[in-house]
Amino acid sequence: MPEPLLAVDGVDAFYGPAQALEGVSFELAGGSTSIVGRNGMGKTTLCNAILGIPPARVTGSIRFHGTELVGRPSYKIAQLGIGYVPQGRRLFPSLSVDEHLRMIASRDQSKRWTPEKVYELFPRLAERKRNGGAQLSGGEQQMLAIGRALLTNPTLLVMDEPSEGLAPAIIEQMVDTFKRLAEEGLAILLIEQNLGVATAISDRQLVMVAGTIAAETTAAALSTDMELQRRYLGVEPLAGRS
């Protein structure tokens, strides 16, 4: 069997004596996969484990294209082809939109993603290219965070709660963008609390509860299984909503 793009095997994560992840295992061959769950279930810790972001102590195995990631520094992991859109965007308030993009962009103009391509994907950023990160709306900040990650020209894009704090109209635009990127061949690992966004983007759904993958299902099944939504996600069911 060919090596999966991402293979997470028996991953535990600890903050001192407190365990945040316990035996997390799954594989991602390509396409789009969503990991859903309530706050405090370990989703962001899993993102940090994949990207090598401290402070959690991680054991187990995380392989990307067959290369072990556990123990590698974050910048080395990014160089392997994993782009990251962190929760909260984490922009530099004093840098302009264009400066954010130019400092990441490769000098190799043959790369798929350049600042000009990001501006084509997000025309609003082109209009705001001279504005600082702190002068952008929430939606514009998220566009910039996504564009910044794309400029690393990743094979896999990991996104942590990209819909957080955004207006419904902006979320709809983001969903369309993520679908387009997936159709173009970019693998996506989406971490989301918003069940509607998760099921709109990915057919494959992994449900995280208390630091473990408690269930694997599909978007259609999760959207219609009211008991699963209540039991694992603690949310009002999607089924029957207008």
Describe this structure in words.
The protein is α/β, with parallel strands linked by helices and 242 residues long. It has a domain of 165 residues: 3-Layer(aba) Sandwich (Rossmann fold). The chain has a six-stranded mixed sheet, with helices on both faces. Strand 1 and strand 2 form a beta hairpin. The N and C termini lie far apart (44 Å). The C terminus is likely disordered.
Give a quick rundown of the structure.
The protein is an alpha/beta fold.
| Fraction of helical residues | 25-40%
CATH architecture of the domain at 6-89 and 153-233: 3-Layer(aba) Sandwich
**The CATH top-level class label of the domain at 6-89 and 153-233:** Alpha Beta
The CATH topology assignment of the domain at 6-89 and 153-233 is: Rossmann fold
**In this structure, how is the largest beta sheet organized?**
6 strands, mixed
Beta content comes to 25-35%
In the sheet with the most strands, the strands line up as 6-7-8-3-9-10
What is the number of helices?
Answer: 10
Order of helices and strands: EEEHEEHEHHHHEHEHEEHH
Structural class: alpha/beta
